[in-house]
Amino acid sequence: MSRICELTGKGRMVGNNVSHANNKTKRTFLPNLQNVTLISDALGTSVKLRVSAHGLRSVEHVGGLDNWLVKTTDDKLSLRARRLKRDVAKKLTAAPQAAA
User: Fold this and answer.
1) Tens digit of each residue's pLDDT (9 = 90 or more) over 25-76
2) In the beta sheet, which residues pair with residue 40?
3) In this structure, are residues 26 and 18 in contact, taking their beta carbons and an 8 Å threshold?
């Protein structure tokens, strides 16, 4: 399982451990990934995703999973999230026509 956020695309970063003697050794910085269940209001279902803590805060700030998917570009999203975005967009465009 890759260590990449499914919503923001945030992944592993590399850097150096620097000792007191200024010796440098490579190390990795991993994102704070959490397995969360987010609710899609448009689809009326819950979705399990692997999201970073930063991504989860961003989703809550924007106003939910559906708003986040509509506003985010496809290149940041994982394949599962892109499919979810497509389904949400279909539901959102079909809903106004049914109400009219």
Assistant:
1) 999 999 999 999 999 999 999 999 999 999 999 999 999 999 999 999 999 8
2) 45
3) no
Report residue 47 as tokens: 């979705």
pTM of the predicted structure, to 2 decimals: 0.82
> CA 72, CA 84: separation in Å to the nearest integer?
12
DSSP structure class, residue 90: H
Residues 6 or more apart whose CB falls under 8 angstroms from that of 66 comprise: 40, 41, 42, 88, 92
* Residue pair 14/79 in contact by the 8 Å Cβ criterion: no
| Amino acid, res. 85 | K
DSSP β-bridge partners for residue 29:
13
- Residues 8-33 have pLDDT tens digits of 999 999 999 999 999 999 999 999 99
State which amino acid sits at residue 66: D
Quickly list H helices, 29-78: 53-62, 65-71
Query: Of the candidates 80, 82, 86, 88, which has an alpha carbon nearest to the alpha carbon of residue 64?
Result: 88
